[in-house]
């Protein structure tokens, strides 16, 4: 425990409570989920890059979404797994803590922007199919991805800077498995009410701001699908959006649960569970959501596997 009015130069992550046996079970579970997440998203990236049938805006965005998912989960999960193997608390320097928080928030912001762009892409595909290739050309897609990355990393500079300008004098122990902003604010002896409110407004801006085009796009998409006369046509149109819509519900649900709240310093268990959803569960589900019901991707996957088997035989 730090003395009053001294500032922390390193933190100790408390990680997960419980016995060594529980830690071993958690390690095995999270290691499995993390491994599947990395391999599944890497598979998506490789197949999207090598198969010419998947050279379309939807799969271009999906490839970049998979890159973001790998990076987001890799920011914190390896450190969390290492902490589950070691007894006691895990030390992390102030610099490493700020870098982890910045990368986590920046990559998450970029992902939300990209998800919103993918919703607009689905709107154009369903509602303006004849103009799709003109509107969603390669130049537009590249700029959308660049803007999502640049915006995410620029937008989170001030929130992270403001967080680490506070004086952490109450303790240097974070009741979490990562450098969580809510737990950091708990350790501050400064009056952080204004900072928390500004951070809340910024979270609302980015989450709701990217959710609005998604809601508008799907309102038009559903309206267009309902006007299609044939049942097969409606199913085909809906199938092009079903995966993205499922991911939107899961992704935005967890983000709203975790960030859009005026009080950032709530119970540690609340933050821990919500962070696990963002860092472990959602990236793990991504490869399954976007591939299991996608006939074109499954066909491309089979062809790639056949080609690899032939190379191994030769």
From TrEMBL:
Family the entry assigns: Belongs to the G-protein coupled receptor 1 family.
GO cellular component, one term: plasma membrane
Transmembrane segments: 25-50, 59-81, 101-120, 141-161, 197-221, 242-260, 272-292
G-protein coupled receptors family 1 profile domain boundaries: 40-290
Its biological purpose: Putative odorant or sperm cell receptor.
Cell membrane as UniProt keyword: yes
Name the UniProt record assigns to this protein: Olfactory receptor
InterPro entries: GPCR_Rhodpsn (IPR000276), GPCR_Rhodpsn_7TM (IPR017452), Olfact_rcpt (IPR000725), Olfact_rcpt_6C-like (IPR047132)
Keywords, comma-separated and alphabetical: Cell membrane, G-protein coupled receptor, Membrane, Olfaction, Receptor, Sensory transduction, Transducer, Transmembrane, Transmembrane helix
Domain of life (superkingdom): Eukaryota
Phylogenetic classification of the source organism: Eukaryota, Metazoa, Chordata, Craniata, Vertebrata
Species this protein is from: Ursus americanus
Membrane topology of the entry: Multi-pass membrane protein
The UniProt record lists the keyword DNA damage: no
GO molecular function: G protein-coupled receptor activity; olfactory receptor activity
CDD domains: 7tmA_OR6C-like
Localization annotation: Cell membrane
